[in-house]
């Protein structure tokens, strides 16, 4: 019998395959060693790596484009948004607008690149006597043509503020759903209220009332059972990424390898964790933007002419220049999370009001 809820299943690659309105999704899971006093990797551990372009996962981690601190030094974007979900570890953000942030441990940064921004994303290794694990998703969300040239903007979603739903099945096993975008189910039998979703940036496709956009993570205890509700929007598309765990059942079909599972968004889908360990999923869904996509590296526009203009603008203006002393700033040894915006105001988790700063 054909499983009508599942459109297709494909293995997870690098990056993960996505559907409009999403452009890109990558999962980084790096078991970084103890850090040096400079918050980087000891030189002795860098042997055999292609420094500046290290995606090797040698010893369970990569340097990417960083050295000695792993990460991604200053690079430009135009025409889309990045949503960075940091599950473990810390990221130091710096950008061409003068903004800075240190975030992690469940925090999310939502950056609208719009007409152009340069930013760096570095992974400081603060612990000198213990490992420094880092786990994150970075998701690229397209902007419609009318918003591709809006002013850059970044928003912080602190872990403490992100709504979560906790559902307990008939056997007492728990499923927790975290909503980075999109409304979760109201409270039901065995479920705790999730709260209102946080507001996405104003020019995001996610801010459109009929976009039906959702970014959820799902964590299921061993043996847990939960039903992913049907999407509400017409034309919505949905992909369920099974990325942790041994074996799950999706709409009655057993999935034993980590996979991207495209679902018919208009149907509810029962998920069963059939293994003796935790299973985890990422859900990306939304109504397609349905416009031409022309991409050249970090620029995503609608036409080749617009791509050529983006390259010309970046060469001429550097999207505002780079106000930092080097291409890969890190923000000191204090582990406290913060975000300092271009206008100078600073915010921190669980803080009711922004705090003015002099710098």
From TrEMBL:
Coiled-coil regions listed: none
Signal peptide positions (record): none
Basic and acidic residues bias: start-end ranges: 331-349
Domain Pirin N-terminal as annotated: residue spans: 69-141
Disordered: annotated segments: 325-359
InterPro entries: Pirin, Pirin_C_dom, Pirin_N_dom, RmlC-like_jellyroll, RmlC_Cupin_sf
Occurrences of domain Pirin C-terminal (ranges): 216-320
A Pfam family recorded for this sequence: Pirin
Domain of life: Bacteria
Alphabetized PANTHER family for the sequence: PIRIN, PIRIN-RELATED
Protein family: Belongs to the pirin family.
Name this polypeptide is given: Redox-sensitive bicupin YhaK (Pirin superfamily)
């Amino acid at each position: 019998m054909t499983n009508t809820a599942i459109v297709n299943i494909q293995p997870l690659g690098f990056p993960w395959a996505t559907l409009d309105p999403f452009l890109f999704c990558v999962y980084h899971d790096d078991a970084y060693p103890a850090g040096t006093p400079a918050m980087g990797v000891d030189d002795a551990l860098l042997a055999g790596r292609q420094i500046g372009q290290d995606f090797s996962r040698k010893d369970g981690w990569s340097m990417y484009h960083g050295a000695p601190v792993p990460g991604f030094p200053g690079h430009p974007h135009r025409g889309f948004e990045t949503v960075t979900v940091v599950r473990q570890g810390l990221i130091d953000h710096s950008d061409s607008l003068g903004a800075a942030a240190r975030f992690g441990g469940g925090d999310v940064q939502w950056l609208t690149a719009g007409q152009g921004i340069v930013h760096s994303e570095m992974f400081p290794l603060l612990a000198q006597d213990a490992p420094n694990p880092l786990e994150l998703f970075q998701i690229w969300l397209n902007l419609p043509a009318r918003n591709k040239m809006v002013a850059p903007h970044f928003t912080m979603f602190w872990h403490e503020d992100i709504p979560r739903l906790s559902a307990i099945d008939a056997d007492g096993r728990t499923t927790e759903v975290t909503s980075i975008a999109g409304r979760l189910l109201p409270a039901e039998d065995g479920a705790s209220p999730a709260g209102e979703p946080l507001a996405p940036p104003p020019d995001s496709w996610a801010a459109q009332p009929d976009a039906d956009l959702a970014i959820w993570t799902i964590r299921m205890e061993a043996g847990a059972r939960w039903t992913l509700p049907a999407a509400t929007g017409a034309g919505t598309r949905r992909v369920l990424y099974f990325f942790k765990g041994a074996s799950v059942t999706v709409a009655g079909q057993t999935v034993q390898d980590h996979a991207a599972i495209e679902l018919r968004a208009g149907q509810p889908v029962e998920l069963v964790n059939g293994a003796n360990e935790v299973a985890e999923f990422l859900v990306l869904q939304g109504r397609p933007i349905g416009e031409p996509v022309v991409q050249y590296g970090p620029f995503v526009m609608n036409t080749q002419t617009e791509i050529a203009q983006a390259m010309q603008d970046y060469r001429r203006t550097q999207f505002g220049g780079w106000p930092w002393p080097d291409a890969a700033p890190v923000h000191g040894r204090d582990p406290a999370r913060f975000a300092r915006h271009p206008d100078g105001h600073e915010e921190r988790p669980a803080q009711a009001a922004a705090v003015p700063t002099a710098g």
